[in-house]
Amino acid sequence: MPEKWTKPPSLAQLFEAPDGFVGRFGWMCGYSADATFLNDVAERFSRQVDRQRAFAGRVALALMLDPGNPQIASADAPGVLHLPIKTGSKPFKLLHAKIALLGFASEADREQWRLRLIVSTGNWTRQTLEESLDLAWTIEISSEQFGPRLDAGVKQRCADIKAAWNLLAWLRGCFDCRALDAALGAKQEGGRQFEDWIAAVTERNTLPAARFFDSREQSLLAQLPKLIRATTSDVARNCVAMGSGYYETPADEAAVPSVLADIVEQLQRKNLLTRAPNIDIFVDPIACQAVAPSFNAIRKRGWHVRKAGRPEDLFGRAERTLHAKFLFGANFRDDSNVCNSAWIYLGSGNLTKPGFSQKMSEFGGNLEAGVVFEPEDKLLWSVERRTDHHRVVSRFLPVQWDEEFDETDSNLSAGSDMPVREDEYVAAPVAYFAWEPVAGASGGGWLKADGAEANAFEVVDSSGLVCGTEGEQGIWWPHTQPAQVQLRWEIDGRQRVATVPVLDQFGRLAGSTLSALGIEEAWQHLASFPLPPDEEDLAQPGGDERQSDKATPGPPHRDTEAASYPIRRMMQLIEDIAVKQTSIDPSDWTAWCVRLEQSLSGMSNCAVVARFRTFAINPLSPLRNCEFRPHFAETASSVAGAQYEGILKRIESAWGVEHLGPLEA
Question: Where is the segment annotated Disordered (predicted)?
């Protein structure tokens, strides 16, 4: 083992794509999130900055949060789609489980993939990164690890991912996924690939018991002994440490907080804890709820109350607030520095009744999730030698054994309880609008909402005016295509407002405004595939529809050389496209077709295209020839070929050359 302590990654860094891989799709759930954190992790996951993600209009991360969290609009965190909860579909008091399941594809070999599970005690917020003491646990599995026979470690990780996916798959049934389904079904391959990778893991037989668990059917406490036994050795430990961001509300100060007492009693009843154990409770001194008034009762039992540990070489001297929820059990011996028979629980469940001792219910228990595991390395109680630093338990958990509160100077405050929030973000009558541009119009188009009654909602423009409706044509939007629009409706007499993404003709959800392109710019966009165009070539993502109101396509681009030699330059572009697309991997074909249509459609006002209209020639006709197409898309008899010919027709229509003679003639 290395002697030098390696600083652990932050919660955001756990979303980083492995070397040689790129994030394709992932699911997240949690209690709260903010756009700052989500932009950070979306960039790490996709390897694209916000402009590039906004240009692509691709959903990389689907996010399910407790409905008390305000909506995070797609334009504020491009690549992330915050899903609203369905009205009347909340089977938990709070959605408090904090997990992410991420899928990555190899950039060199698209058949290779990785899945990563993250279980966090912290929220998906900037506060977690900068102010909190939190914990996270992560595992990863690779397609390369799958063979005729799986080793025990791979089987265990498969079981954990299977259990986590079972929770996420169930949870998405509580949320409105219409916009996500439309985006993933409209030329976005990442979601399908992710499902295939999940199936490769979850369809495995003879897997061990999962270390991951949740509170849907039983409380976390009820499941804890069984998980300890399945994960580690079946022996009674003589030490337990407990930590929580919130403890239960103060009730009877003459008694130990009930959840803490129940944990100890449950472990003792199952012979996993000795009759005279050493109990340590770690707290935030200025906000430890029932622990403060019950301090004397706790001390009478011989238990210790300590301030949470905070390694200075990790956080410096900055104060951090305990938010982590954890349990640590082990055996201590006077003649050994090793934490023998150690086990750790970490997860979302605070040591409260709704968080830990009640199962999920609408008015009782939260939906919580966590993991119980045995540390990979033997942990140590303290540093005795220079080489011990990387194994001491205080490096992994916010604990310390040097100081504790006593009866003469407890200096503890109950602080406030966990705040109560009303549901803010619930499903609207419309989850997304499909954009239909009006041919020949300089601006404006139709917003279409499938299956929604027009009188059930209003679309409001940047001036606060309600947009008009024209029957089956949809809602008239008098500006250039927006990334998202504001929707207003009522539920039980209460007005609701939400931002709804727009799905354009290229399958982009909440995509940024596409600029008019010259022939050189269009080729730069194509040449960079499968990477996004350079950041400098793209517009900033818009915050809302107000910015798109003012956005207008630029004037026709005049490429001097191209305008002087239009046939030569166009032929070069066609040849370059042919060389590029004949080497495209089948797994990238849909994405390539989208990029081709976006880029070439942006050339409709280009001077070179205008010259070909003057010549009455369709310059795109050579792209229909077999030798200009990959083998799997040579004719319309294949799905890939039919898809390709469909986008060529749309580009020809955008250029106004669909009825002109072929270039070959």
Answer: 530-565
Mean pLDDT, rounded, for 89-105: 96
CA distances to 42, 52, 203, 653 from 484, rounded to whole Å, are 19, 17, 38, 26
Residue type, 407: E
Burial class (CB in 10 A: 0-12, 13-18, 19+), 572: middle
Give the three-state DSSP class for 425.
Answer: coil
Query: Among all chains, which residue has been given the structure tokens 């009693």?
Result: 265
**Distance from C-alpha of 207 to C-alpha of 204, rounded to nearest angstrom:** 7
- Helix axis angle for 178-185 and 190-202, nearest 10°, is 100
* Identity of residue 440: G
What angle (nearest 5°) sits at the alpha carbon of residue 520, between those of residues 515 and 525?
A: 60
Same topology between domain 12-202 and domain 212-395: yes
Q: Which of 157-166, 228-237, 310-319, 482-491 has maximum average pLDDT? A: 157-166
Q: Give the model confidence (pLDDT) of 467-521 as tens digits.
A: 888 877 889 998 888 999 999 998 888 899 999 999 998 888 999 888 888 889 8
Q: What pLDDT, on a 0 to 100 scale, did the predictor assign at position 441?
A: 60
Q: By the 8 A CB rule, do 79 and 39 touch?
A: no
Select the more confidently predicted residue: 503 or 588.
503
Reading the block at residue 609, the tokens are 């295209």
Residue 186: the pLDDT is 59
| Residue 537 C-alpha from the chain's centroid | 27
Distance CA 75, CA 543 (A): 5
Cis peptide before 257 (omega within 30 of 0): no
- The domain at 212-395 falls in which architecture? 2-Layer Sandwich (3.30)
This prediction has a pTM of 0.88
Print burial letters for 435-444: b (CB count within 10 Å at least 16), e (below 16).
bbeeeeeeee
* pLDDT at residue 442 in the model: 62
Those residues whose C-beta lies under 8 Å from the C-beta of residue 644, and which sit 6 or more positions away, are: 589, 593, 629, 633
Report pLDDT for 542. Answer: 52
Residue 5: pLDDT over 60: no
Phi, psi dihedral angles at 294 (to 5 degrees): -95, 10
The alpha carbons of the chain give a radius of gyration, in whole angstroms, of 29
Domain ranges of the chain: 12-202, 212-395, 433-503, 519-662
The fold of 12-202 is: Endonuclease; Chain A (3.30.870)
Q: Are 547 and 585 in contact (CB under 8 A)?
A: no
3-state secondary structure of 25: strand
Q: pLDDT-based confidence at 45, cuts 50/70/90?
A: very high
